[in-house]
Amino acid sequence: MKFRFKAFGLHATCSAVALSLIVGILYFLWYRWPGWYLAGALHAVAVMVAVDVVIGPLITLLIASPRKPRRELTRDIAIIVLIQLTALGYGAETLWQGRPLYYAYSVNCLSVVQAFDIDADSLKVARDQKSELVPHWYSLPRWIYAPLPQDPDESDKIVQSAVQGGADVIDMPQYYEPWSNGQKDLQTQLKKLDDIQFFSVKQKALLKQRMQSLGLATDRSDSIALTGRAQSVLAVLDPVSLKIRAIIKPT
In terms of pTM, does the model score above 0.85? Predict the structure, then answer.
C-alpha cells in the first residue's frame, strides 16, 4: 500500500500544480471579481478538478502495484495522464473562450461581455474601422459604453435581434465607445435598490444587509444591475464621479 499511496500522492500533487497554474493565470488576469461569478466558471473548474485532481490520481492508486511490471505500469499511467491532459485542455479552452473581455454599459444596465459573445463578423467590422476598443487575444477586461447606433433602422435591427435572443449591441465592438462617453446617460439610470427589477425580494433583503455592512446607504439612487449569463450582481456607484464603490452578489 505504501507504493500505491506514494504514486497517488505524486500524481495528485502534479495534477494539482498543473490545474492551479492554468486556473490561476485565467483567474487573476480575466476572471477576477465579479468575472468568475458572472460567467459561471465554477462549473467548468469543478469538472476539471474532478477529472484531473480526483479521478486521475484515484485510478493511479488502484492500478499502482510494485508487483506490476514497470513497463506496464508506465503505460497505464501514461494513458491516465493523456486522458487528464485532454480534459484539462478542454476545460482550459472552455474558460478561455468564456473569459470576460468587457463590462459594458448599454441602455439601462451593465453587462459582462465574454469572448464567445463576439462573433467573427462583428470583430472583422470593428477591426476594419480601426476601433481602439477592438479586443485582441491578450485583451484584459475593460469598462466600455455600448450605445445603440444613431441610425434608426440599424438600431431597430439590433433591438429586434436582442429580443429574439440574438446578438445585442454589447456583442458588437464596432459600436463601442470609451466608458466616459456614457457617464451622463448612466447617471440617469442609477436607482434605489428597491426599484431595480433584476433581483427578487429575498435577494434585495440580502443585498441590503450586505450594503449596510459595507456602510452603504440602501435608499440612495446610486445602484444598477450588472448582469451575466449565470448570475447578476449589484453595482453601487458614486452618483457624481461614477466610480464603483462596491459590487455585491445577491446570493
Answer: yes
